Each structure stands twice: as C-alpha cells, then as structure tokens.
Amino acid sequence: MPNSEPMAPSRDLALVSDASLVVAIARYRQDALAETYRRHAGAVYALARRLLCDHTLAEEVVQEVFLRIWDAPEKFDAERGSLRSYLLAQCHGRSVDLIRSEQSRRDRELKEHRQQAEAGYDIEHEVWDLAVADHVREAISDLPTEERRAIELAYLGGHTYREVAVLLDQPEGTVKSRIRAGLRRMRRVLVDAGVGGVS
Questions:
Q1: pTM of the full predicted structure?
Q2: What digits encode the pLDDT tens for the residues 155-182?
Q3: Whose CA is closest to 138, among 91, 99, 64, 193?
Q4: Domains, the chain, with CATH or none
C-alpha cells in the first residue's frame, strides 16, 4: 500500500485519498475506517442488495466487507485499482458465496424430497410422468426465448422471481409477465396434448 501523503488528523480525513485512508486503517485508526465507510458503504450495499434481493443479508455483507479491510488492509493494492473497485469485488464475491450456499441447500432439500417420493413410486406413474415430461419439454422449447429463459430459471432452476430478475438483468414485473405469458402458452399446448394444464 502506498504512503504518498502525510496522515491527516481526524477532522481532515475527508480530504485525504483512499489509499492514505487504507494506510491509516493499517495503523488501527478507526476514524479512517469510518471515513472509508462513509465514502463507499452506499455503493457496496447497493450491489449486495441487487445481488441478494434481501436487505438483511445485504447489510451483513457490507459489515463483512469493511471488517475485511480492517483486518487485512494490506490486501488492497492501489496500483491494481481503486478502493471502491476493491470493496465492490469483495462484496460481489461474498454475495455469490451466499447465493451458492442457498442453492446448495435447495438442491439438498430437492434431493431429499425426490428420495422420499421414489420410495412409493410405481412403474405406471413413472411411464405417465415421463410422457408428461416429454410434452412439457416440447411446450417449453416452443416458447419465445425470453419467456422460456425466465420459466427455466424459475421452475427448473428453483429461483425466485426476484432472483430471476437479477440473473436476467430485467425488472421483476417484466419477468413475472413473461412467466405468466409463457405458462399460458404451455397450458394451451398441454391441454391439446391431453395431459392437463400448468398450475
């Protein structure tokens, strides 16, 4: 970390560079951490909130990011980029970790549910379900691309509407409308095929 300018007293920290703030943090100056938080916490929170779609989790990520800079300020290298970019990268990494952890939990629960269902499964149901699955795949494949992608993420990927909106970088209302329109198309196709509608 560079130490290109003398360290200012607390009242003047608002005038120093980000790099000098990190130098002060390395010297355990809490006022420097507070000034860093004042400058960058809003951007870090906004990214975490957008990725996680959860206020509480986003706040936890912000706390972790600034705790990391306090615990290991030497990991910031001003020659590789700005402090804000560094903090946002830390935020993105931690948010992705949380998303993956949640997806792993969902996958485990889905596996358990499948195992429980398979315990009482018979061949007649299996044949019927395979036939229905074929019709569903065909109905999905015939959808417009935007509707198909939204439905695949929501129903096959197990994502909430908000998560689908983030993944597709689209407004949540748009995603919901596309999913509803796609399901209506699928319902008509499945009814015509004699396998019922889509709930």
A1: 0.52
A2: 777 888 898 898 888 898 998 999 888 8
A3: 193
A4: 10-100 (1.10.1740.10), 122-192 (1.10.10.10)
